[in-house]
Design brief:
Blueprint lengths: L1 H28 L10 H8 L6 E4 L3 H13 L6 E4 L2 H9 L15 E4 L8 H10 L8 E5 L4 H9 L4 E4 L4 H16 L38
Parallel strand pairs: 1-2, 1-3, 3-4, 4-5
Helix pairs in contact: 3-7, 4-5
Length: about 220
Amino acid sequence: MLNAFCAALLAFERQTDHCRAWWQRITVEREFVGVAGRGFKRYITCLKTYHTTILVVEDDPDDQFLIEKAFRGLGVTSPIHIMGDGAEAIAYMCGEGKYADRKKFAYPTFITTDLKMPRADGFAVLEFLKRNPEWRIIPAVVLSASRDLDDVKKAYMLGASSYHVKPETMSQLSQQLRILHDYWLTCEVPQVDRGGKQLETNSEGKLGQRFTEEPTPQSKPHR
């Protein structure tokens, strides 16, 4: 009887440990259901220590509202800053005026931009990033109503990470942003500080040692 009791107790303890480990794993991974890969848990751990800031460049107030609402509906709690045109977005990235406060306005880690906007359009945003190689590593996605093939070609020529046509319904927009959001969360990109400067890495003895180091960011970015 005692042996049976001890065996039952041991089985219970093992089951408890299993449940505890299972719950801890689910707590971390529940927002990433359906994403495969053994290294993904390691990525999530790194993600916890890395700031994320979304920059939405869009001049239409209705689209601004819908895009932010869609991101929030996906469970995004990171800061989302809305810029009304390309000129304001460039000022944000340069840290000019009120955007100099990088604790409040951290350099974006993900950018979505419309194309047709006043003062400076979406092409100007992409061109600005292209002129500043240190900042081109930030995913910059075009989200535009334009299906013009020349717009698509020019956007990719200027370094757009991807080009998407705005959907017609809120549910379609949410689905599209979910795909984009989940995809970029699984991508490894060079880490930057809150001012947009890439963090230093050590190439000694590694494959990348033969490549020339990227130039350090200038005090004033190229406009």
